[in-house]
Structure prediction request, 159 residues.
Amino acid sequence: MSIEPFVLHVPQHEIDLLHSRLEHTRWPAPLPGDSWETGVPVHYLKHLAGLWRTDYDWRARETRLNAFPQFTTSIDGTRIHFVHVRSPHPGALPLILTHGWPGSVFEFLDIIDALTDPADPADSFDVVVPSLPGFTLSGPTPEPWDTDRIAAAWVSLMT
Prediction:
């Protein structure tokens, strides 16, 4: 299995294009009641799009993720992205953290340091945090993968 280092960098023109698309979104008319009972309320989506366009700091998120060693590999023809942080302590146990849907590796960034370098070295882990196939920075699969198939891929990743 070939493992390649990875650094996230989204070109500025892609971010600018996203901002433009958000700014020029054609919103549907709200359904009567415009409540969660009929789907995501249009007013809520407009609010989120506005935050994403004006307040979300993509470069800060990029910097946060890039503070950790990241890699990609191919498992059964599917590109898998993962964060891998080794503990500075010998004998650390390997630990895989996997997000759910609709999550991402970002959910675990705040606990990686505590797991890899705890107060008691006996409690340390070598942490691997893969992106589920089709999520974040992992590629899509040629056919659907269920939880058993993803678990088998994680076994391959960890061995």
